[in-house]
Amino acid sequence: MAPYESDDITEDPKAGRRKAARYVVPVAVVGVAAATIGLVPALADSGDPDLPEISAQRLIEKIAASDVEQLSGTVRFSTDLGLPDLGGLESGLTGGAAGSGGGSSADPTAKLTELATGTHTLRVAADGPDRQKVSLLEDAAEYSLIHNGKDVWGYDSASNEVFHAESAEAGTGGKKDAEPPATPQQLTEEALKAVDDTTSVTVEGTAHVAGRDAYRLVVKPKDSGSTVGQITVAVDAKTGMPLKFTLTPASGGAAVVDVGFTQVSFAAPAASTFDFTPPKGAKVTEEEQPGATEKGSTEAPGRTGSGEHPFGKDSGSEDGPGGLDGMNVIGDGWDSIATFDTGGEGVPSGSETGGGALGGFIDSLGDKVTGKFGTGTVFKTRLINALVTDDGKVYVGAVTKDALVKAADAAQ
Question: Are 125 and 273 in contact (CB under 8 A)?
Answer without folding.
Answer: yes
